[in-house]
């Protein structure tokens, strides 16, 4: 039980990632707004920064350890994709903020892992926050805080952890596959978000497998109590829902944003993004309903089982109580009880008992009480 | 049980058609957006393409096996209806896409059978996705993914499976019945969607029959447990609801679309379409309520039955326990128990027992406990 | 039970009037849109058409059997009220449609009794569909499909059955009471709708009586099970709700309609209509809540009763089981049981039994278990 | 029970004041719209009409028995407040309607006590309907229908009953306290509505007292069944809610009304009115939740209690049944039962019984079953 | 129980702070609108007023006991922050109102502690009401009524109690840290509200700790009944929700306000404020769901436990009743019962009993009834 509880705690949807710890809040409160504090739990010592620089004819890839050592000018002729792996190096974040002239509040939200998905418009850049979901080796669901800043000719992507789902895009840039090399930073932003949302489908597919497996077991073996498993699945679905749900608004806003940063021809792709987001959200909603249904079925099963047990037990008692009464009758000490003197009285009595017993069973069966 | 479970699985509303399988997702993720991948399960070897070309005075009907062999020009003087039966020939879809100059994302959604109903506006064409519902031979409910593209003088209709509900329209075109030959492509689109929505009425009528049949049985034979049948009907209703519900928004958008593709005089018909859609949705909502009511009634019946059984059993025990006590009294070995010496004591005792038994029964009957 | 079930079926809210039968649908599907098919169940042989023609100084009343025989011109100087009693004569409907130059879809909806209440605006006329509710002789609730078409100087009213609530208006026209003779067709439309909505108050008053009567009985005789009566009342309320609810939108649209057909001074009356509609709807909503409350109360009563019975029975058993044990003690055959040799042992034993019995009763009463 | 039921009926929220009686409806239906019929139940023989006429420097107060005898001209230089106490004198209402040139439908709604709160704009006047709530001597909650008509320089206030909450305002007019004498009719309207809404706070405070008292009792004496009291409180809260809820929309409309009748500087006060209305409504909503919570707590208490009783009784039976079995053992008539010949066998038996009894009790206590 | 009840009462969410006491209402009703009455319960004798006056180069700090003694002119060159600690000195409030030329209704709301959070726009100032939440020494949650008035160059902050969360801001002003000294009054307003919302995170963190602790205990020790603790936590969450929820609208309005008082560059910060508010509200909503889940789990646990107990007890009875019957058999006095004459009959009987007992236990275990 203790172990299970611990495991449950790990996926507790409102403590793991979405509420800042008290210490962090206190630290932050002692600072003025705009101060960058990393609120997550993963300290990465060596924050690596990958930089892609490309246009239709040219591509350059570089990995820097300290952003201050990256001195290339921001150049409108190429698209620059700066990818920061780890948020604990707040100095790097501040450097980036200065180089790209970002609003002071932006980096505060980049480092604040409890920030919910959102889209903020600034005159020179769009700031998008969303959540990556992935299962770790133990099958536990983790949330990763990702920030994306879209400028005229650059995309800044800040991830909380190492490793991501963007290798396909990197390959497409390197090998000049698809549209990405021939389009601007806005298409890169779309491609990145599309990869994240595509990954959501895998997450919900895993959820679907778990739910179906549980459903199967509840049907084939209804006598077990699955309530804790169901509760845990429910928490997982809620966690997914909380990460994905605000994205609907973000992508919707992105579709309607009236900004020179997003070209007309990219807007069609954003609409496609919106479709996929809706599809993910609807599927998650269906899972919620399904889990509620499983919960109902589980408690109905348990109640039915309990009722069955009680009924059988009560029937046994009900048959034997009158029989005990009759045995009591012939245990009485009245001076004159004619049956007692009968030669085969005892056998007749047993006959009566067997008759009553079998008769009752047949009667109850016929009334479908047994 | 196992068999039932399998059957249930087939209509599982969130796995059958609406969530892409993991493999497909993975395959798709390795491609850039806009790449056409068929996500359904029905591979049709020979995808037939029916083409109607007509105006008020002229009609031509042709069936081609490969779209590349269809070389007729798109001509604004006639309405062209291209009907693709099967989505597994992605090459044909790509060819069509090029011939009619469609946006690259359109064909991705045409082939993606998990795409929910939607309406996308493009400068030169409208793209509509909806779902056909039909019962197969086993009475199982199937969903078919249908895409419709409306251009200036053409309608492209892409269906997942062979066979459809449009034969009436084909006859009307051939025989020049009704308005269809004298109006444009927009009216053809309306006629096609109208046929689909009319077919929904048959689907919900079948559902209605099933629900009424179940209701009848619950009323006439309340001692059975119908929960699994109810659960299955509920899943079916949910599946219908998920296919039809988004159509409300689609038709609503279609009614309000400000586009030269839909003529003013056709808009009145679209409004009629909207009315019918609402009517279908409302009926489905009523079914949901009805099924919830059946569920309540079923569990009330089961609980009542259980209570009745327990009550009767408890009453039997309650009558016999005091009688057993009295029998125990006269089984005691006190040296001086006057009743035991009475000549007819035993008969008096039996008299008292019968009196108590009948008296209790009458008392319980009068108190309506029995 | 069987009889009740039949009765319930009659008021089944989703089969009686709102869903077309499969045959009708199939018939309709084989026709092009705009084809007039009567979908109700009441075939009236001789469809009578009443025509009123009036202005401030003049009134003429006529009944025609075939509309084709009514050849008077539509004249803007008088208001014409054409009242069709019965929808099975589709020829008459088509004739009217041609004479008043109505849109082809209008007559389809007039004859389609499953059409929900709605308001459609056409350039030359307004088309309103609503439902009349009335109790027939058996107290059964029936729905009548009514269509109203408002033109510049005419009102066409098509009713499904004979008999209506408009006799008051007919008298006012004949005797020139109130405003109706001095105002236009729009005021006549208002007066007709007002009469229908006023009649709703009688319907809901009857419902209120039934609910109060049931409530009274549940309070005074809580030991009965009223769940089927409640269920039936609930169905009736749902039927009323489904007929009236869409009217809110209709009247709201009518209030906001920007159309030369409705004069400014009539709009104030339409606002009044809206007030009454809201009032009816709110009352029906209260009824829904009340019925839900009755249902709760009923099941609480049943559960309480069951609990009471079980408690009393258990208490009887609980008292007698220890007493039986004691009787068993003195039925034992130990060689040396001192109490058995006592002169009055048997009487002492009875004394102890009575003491235990009365003591237990007092104890349970004091603990409020009895 | 009967008495309680009667009392409940009095506050029945959907019959007392909000639905017109059938007779009244029928009477009204036989008249044309605009006909004034009093639908309440309180016939007041002598309807008194109080008239205040004031401006910054002048104040005159008059009470008239028949409005026709009040012949003073409506004068824009003074504010006139006409207060009608009782609605049964429909002649007076009609006279007022003519003198102030009101729309014919206004007086119909003034006399129709089942009219829900609303605001109607007319070119020359605003028409507001709201409900006064007060507790009568028996603590019963009553609803009073109040209509207010705001003109350029007059306020007409029509109340259903004698006695009101406006004495403070009368004093302020007489003594020229506050702003009322120096401002126009619009401020008077605000002051009157403010007095009504302030009175709502007293009503909900009384409700709060009742709820808290009940809550206290449920906590301190959880073994009682409070469901009927809770049900009654719930009905009272629903009644209050129905009277106040539509006022939100009324005041909101009043705040946004674009009308020369309400001066800019009065609009700030109307906003304040809106705040207070929201506050009342929110408090009532909290009460609803609290009552739902009480209901839950009450039924949990009852179930717990029942469970406790059943558990204790079952435990008694469970202890004594094995003991009775053992007594039965030594009541058997086997020829050779060694224990029976033991000198102290009987005492050993008793020892065993006491041991089993006490042991079971300790065991059950330790397992927290007792 | 009594003590617990008292404690509960203290945090009663609808009586403690949000509904004015009847006396206060009555007092207020006897006054004209705009009269300032303190409706809270904390009388502070010596209301201290702290005044900050600063710009980029200059800062002055002063504490006055009577506002009338503060005679400095309001000067647009410096930002003035007037902080009133305590609302019981209504004279001071009136003085401030006159000096800053506030609308008469503003001070009424400042002193009315039951006023819900809101934002009112006036031509020269914005008036914001919100609630501070803090835990007192006993861990009880208290609500403090705070009003903030933003003018061109001043911020008036009126708090109900001493002590606040603004010391960080005071330090930043004194030491010229962050932006506050170089920006206007609008940024000061933002900083103050930000401090309050940051403090909400600590409050909800404490709530989170309590909920997690309770959850832990329900999991590890499911046999307890936690319903009262859960109920209390629920009330606390509701109290927090009621204080924070209306703030969403306030900050949203603040973001959209079109007013010269809030500079463009401050609006970005207000948007950040909105993000945080949403985050707090969403977390509180999750808590509500979690508590509902705990409640379910708690009652399921209790029901399961009860069922387990009943099952075990019933099983004991069920085993012993047939055994008692058999003992009764051999206690009968038939003249000829062969078993009784057997030498080891008694031992065989015991053997049978032990066999039945153990057999039943094994049977029940195998059927998972035990």
UniProtKB/TrEMBL annotation, chains A, B, C, D, E:
Keywords: Cell membrane, Coiled coil, Ion transport, Magnesium, Membrane, Transmembrane, Transmembrane helix, Transport. It is a multi-pass membrane protein. Residues 197-243 form a coiled coil. InterPro entries: CorA_cytoplasmic_dom, CorA_TM1_TM2, Mg/Co-transport_prot_CorA, MgTranspt_CorA/ZnTranspt_ZntB. Pfam families: CorA. Its main location: membrane. It is found in: Cell membrane; Membrane. Belongs to the CorA metal ion transporter (MIT) (TC 1.A.35) family. Mediates influx of magnesium ions. This is Magnesium transport protein CorA. It comes from Dokdonia genika. The gene is corA.
